Task: structure prediction
Amino acid sequence: MRLAYLHQPEAMLVAHKKAIALMSELNAHPNPINYHLFYEYALGEHPEFNAFIDQMRDSQEPWSDILGVRLTERFFKQQERTIVGVEQELMNAIGEMTENVSKHVDTHFELAQALENNPEKAPLISAHLKKTNRLLSHEVKDGKQRVDATRARLVEHKKHTMTDLLTRLHNETHLAEFLPVIVKRNQASKKQMLLALIDVDQFADYNARYGHHRGDSLLRAYAKILASLGEGTHAWRMNTDEFVLTMVMKPGTPVGRLIKRVHNQLTSIHFKATAEKTAVPAQPVSMVVDLVTDRAESTLNHLYELMKTYRNTGSLIFTEELTAIL
Result:
């Protein structure tokens, strides 16, 4: 630690102690919950700790950025291992339930055959049949509960791997799995589906000039806008400075006007000066938009090709196909 930190304000010292304690906890108990907790601190959920991180960054201490990246990587790797384990547990639960039910069905069949062949023993066999039916009913109920509970745990763990920790939007993993589902669901309706690729212009320069904490705040502000567009829309953060947005619209909806409003909202985000921080102007955003007519993957690939031309221009571009219907 540099000498500049020897006379920190009391709040900063408390935050520093919390950080050190939490790092020690991480080392002693390396689990995803602790990683996530530290990442929450690093993202600014706790103002005092955020101020400490800012001071470290202002003094060009690199550990906070490196630690954030490494903790995120470890968090997702741990989640992936957990998912594999829960998937195996789910398969075991389904297999066990199937096997147990099969045994009871076989017993039921054998007793039914015995009843048919030995009518004189009907009271005794009927009692066994009733018992077998009760056991079968309980087995199905208990097995289903276990399978449902395990499946719910699996869904919950997958949610963690499909959510971007910084913005709380879904990530590229989620898009790859669910975008085709969204498109297929929309094809059954008569609605239009738009796909937009959004790129923050010169984001690396923005981080270098104003600090990563401002870059993080900018991305979170973009995500807040994209997540609040309402029903029929869905947004993903793809990588450091890219977002994908889908909008499902009824025929006759003023699509062009809506997209322009979103673009204007994104390009108007800025930060006012405070006692501790300088003002930061709005950052240009490039956005290319197309109409999804068949496969979303093809449309998205087309937009990525188009973005090569318009990246870092601050432009809002509609493809020819979309322009024709606007």
